[in-house]
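Lecture notes, unit on binding sites. The following record was shown on slide 14. It pairs a sequence with beta-D-ribofuranose.
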Amino acid sequence: MKNILIDCDPGHDDALAIIVALANPQKLNLLGITTIGGNQTITKVTENAKKLLGFLKAKVPLAAGQSNPLKRSLKTAPEAHGDTGMDGPFFDGTTYPLSDLSGVDFLYEKIMASEGTVTIVALGPLTNIALLLTNHPEVKGKIGTISLMGGGIDHGNYTELAEFNIYVDPEAAEIVFQSGLPIVMAGLDVTEKAEITVAEIKALQGKGRVSQLVYELLSFYNESGRQFGFIDSPIHDLCAVAYLLAPEIFKGTYANIHVITDESLARGLTYGDFRKSASKFKPTLVLQEVDRQKFVELLLEALRYLDAV
Ligand code: BDR
Ligand code: CA
């Protein structure tokens, strides 16, 4: 059983990562969720997290994190996730409690109070995590791994060279990648192979309460993905949770990752030292391959579980 904390900006694919984490209580002990300004403003993504957790009847503590990147103004992604940040489904007026603590203080308290180590799952810009590591370095001894969605070794999506989460807060990303902690990087190299097909999305319609929600989420997300040239939909953020549940369905290589923080064409580019020498510092496992069918099966299995609850 792994203790995990999820830091996210829901976000369609963030929502799917949360759903699959909640559907695996025998493997993942979800200690809490924090939000971060990214796909939409902190107000909107926190509202989305509340709606989703309310809908799922979850009992996981939730706290709102930073509104803005460390040094930059926030960029959001309405073109991918809509005006609410999680367009598609209609949620009725369920309410969900929000912690009084800031996201960073919440993460700190949860980590220090936990028995054993905690895995951080980071699904948005890395601002909360960078502040946590900088302001409270003592947490490092209690963090087992950071499993994150971000970056891409040979291409970007928000720009030619940069993936969205890293582009938004490159300084935070550099702090995290250079923290010395073991990191699993689910970047575009692998997440664009972790697609759900149109037929698989359609098959969810009417299957059950949570399947129907996912159908509505993915229908919007699939449609918005068309403008970027995708026919099927890459479920980026789910990779960071799927790796924790089934590492054997992924392949990757260790590297030392740096982030370009200049305000240039390369802002937010992640590049790696993959040289083989054993003496090299290579804390990041860069995921490169995934068994797509097994990945989708992980999602379907989670939905069968939640539809039956
Ligand atoms: C990442 O950016 C966001 O739009 C998604 O939620 C994901 O975390 C993909 O580049
Ligand atoms: Ca995200």
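Take-home: The chain has a mean pLDDT of 97.
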